[in-house]
Amino acid sequence: MAQKSTANNSKGPQVKKRRGDYDDPANHHTNPWLFELTIGLFAGLFWGVVRWLLYEINFTVELPGFLVEPFFRNSFLKSPWGITIGISGFIVFSIIAALIYYFLFAKLRGPWPGVLYGLLWWAILFVFTGPMLQMTKPITEAGWNTLTTELCIFMLWGLFIGYSTAFEYTDEASREPIGAR
């Protein structure tokens, strides 16, 4: 009995492909609900904690729980449990914002759409609805430190959501150097 010659056998024995192994990115399909839920969760957790730290070192006067302020007393939101609920509220907000970004802007490339998305949310929350619902101080009373800190945080938050989404749903990965993939 003659053995078949295998020219490609220099790498060792062939491993049977398992479900979930992807060699061809074209065959990989991401579940958008789960992906955006994950992006929103981590965007809210990371940037919510950063907002809390910046509040603690007095870079901003807006409470970490300003989004849930209509539902809780201000004194409670300053307590450890209130801060936890505030960060949790920011996580829920981030998940919803990530889903909205996916449905409206998922095919946009690059980092700038995400930065502009964060600026849009900053304007909505700190210029329009925030003061109207008494969640934030009016923009004329907030102070430059608070305004610039919150603006930068929301730009970075939007960048995180936008660029993560663009990287997954456009060919942003093809722009990476070959060794980075």
Can you characterise this structure?
This protein is mainly α and 181 residues long. It has one domain (31-171). Helix content is 59%, strand content 0%. The chain has six helices and no strands. It has helices at residues 32-56, 74-77, 80-105, 112-132, 139-142, 144-169. Helix 1 packs across helix 3 and helix 4 (112-132) crosses helix 6 (144-169). The longest helix has 26 residues, at 80-105. The mean pLDDT is 83.
Keywords:
181 residues, mainly alpha
The gist of it:
This protein is an all-alpha fold and 181 residues long.
Q: Please tally the β strands and state the result.
A: 0
Low-confidence regions: none
Report the C-alpha radius of gyration, rounded.
22 Å
Binned strand content: under 5%
**What is the number of helices?**
6
Distance between the termini: 43 Å
Q: What order do the helices and strands follow?
A: HHHHHH
Instruction: Estimate nothing, just give the exact number of structural domains.
Output: 1
Summarize the main sheet.
none
Q: Which structural class is indicated by helix and strand composition?
A: mainly alpha
Q: What does the average pLDDT come to?
A: 83
- Give the helix proportion (percent range): 55-70%
Instruction: Estimate the global geometry from the Cα principal axes.
Output: elongated
